Amino acid sequence: AFVDSFSRSLAYEYKDKGIHVHLVGPGYVFTKMIDKLLDGPSLTAPTPDTLVRSDLRSITRIQVTSGYWFHNLMVR
């Protein structure tokens, strides 16, 4: 909650200076840290490359996101 609140405060404080703050709070991402828990990348645990490509598409439109469309559905 702190990071979300802090990011929103920064965004408000710096919006007149043309600085955009984009908070990414992803769900599971298929990395070496969780590869023993899962069989491989999936809809619920994308690869880091997939997550970044997805997030870059939303960077100018959304201030707070999970970065990946399926994770956004799970949060709502």
Automatic annotation (TrEMBL):
The keyword Oxidoreductase is annotated on this UniProt entry: yes
UniProt record similarity statement: Belongs to the short-chain dehydrogenases/reductases (SDR) family.
Name by which UniProt lists this protein: Uncharacterized protein
Keyword Lipoprotein carried by entry: no
Top-level taxon of the source organism: Eukaryota
GO molecular function: oxidoreductase activity
InterPro entries according to UniProt: NAD(P)-bd_dom_sf (IPR036291), VLCFA-Steroid_DH (IPR051019)
Keyword list, A-Z: Oxidoreductase
Organism: Darwinula stevensoni
Lineage: Eukaryota, Metazoa, Ecdysozoa, Arthropoda, Crustacea
